[in-house]
TrEMBL record:
PANTHER family according to UniProt: REVERSE TRANSCRIPTASE DOMAIN-CONTAINING PROTEIN
Protein name: Retrovirus-related Pol polyprotein from type-1 retrotransposable element R1
GO terms of biological process kind: DNA biosynthetic process
InterPro entries given in the database record: DNA/RNA_pol_sf, RT_dom
Residues annotated as domain Reverse transcriptase: 1-174
Signal peptide interval: none
UniProt-listed Pfam families: RVT_1
Amino acid sequence: MNTDHLALVSLDIKSAFDNMNWSVLFKIFIGLPSFYRNFIFYYLCDRTVLYINDVCETTRHCFKGCPQGSVIAPIIWNIYINTILCNNNTTFYTQAFADDLALVVSGRRARDLESNTNSALEQIALNLSDLKLKLSAEKCQALVARSISSYKFSKRNSTVLNRKPTFKINGYSIKISDSLKILGIVLDNKFTWSSHILTLHNKALFLTCNFNRIVKTKWSLNKNLIKLWYSTVIEKALLYGASVWGGTLTKQQVDRLHSIQRIFLLKFTRAYRTTSTNVLNTLTGIPLARARQNRIYQVSDLVWTRQSLY
């Protein structure tokens, strides 16, 4: 894979759960024992939607859609879109996250990457058409990364292709960005995680406003309660996905991560701004963000290694 260019395409299905076609679903269920088919049938039938506003109240029967909020609903949806995932081969791989699809495509040359991606998108579009589903073309985005082995042949070791490929689905062009957010993690075309760390910094500033409402005037507020709030809200938000991005941070990114944590430590201790971060961590008993992030990454790496062995 070091010799191949890569493309990551984020695909959004328009009103996916609301548009699941029951006729198509039961065609998929052909071959299953009648007990299971009847169970799903009676689970879906006799459903109504109630709409109420200041003027009127309306009730309509449902003949499509995947009911949400139950244990079996995700299983039904996974079975419904499984045909899309069955197309995976050596050139592209599709992964589903609920109603969002992520497509990873490889190509030896830029034109191969463009051709392989458009072929994969065409196949996905056909599968979605068979499932009576549509894509939100305006919400679809793509990210392109140059192969590692071609860095030395590019000007200034650029990690970006000289010409951006063109990706289309159903006649609509997909926007190619320098960064792409998937499941709350921001990926950039150089895989440096700089965009994600910057996003964490902006999120920290937003959370600080809520944090200030608690500690600004309530000086007598129990510090254990504040510490619990930090560990369950702030730290979880900052270290989300650390098992993915935590292994390759630069010193500059680590310093920025500590500066994000420092904002809350100063609010927590009400210490002077000249107080060092290490002292703040010692006073509060809260470990450095880098130490917690390393721990999460190492545990995740160990679990992944064990699963690979078995």
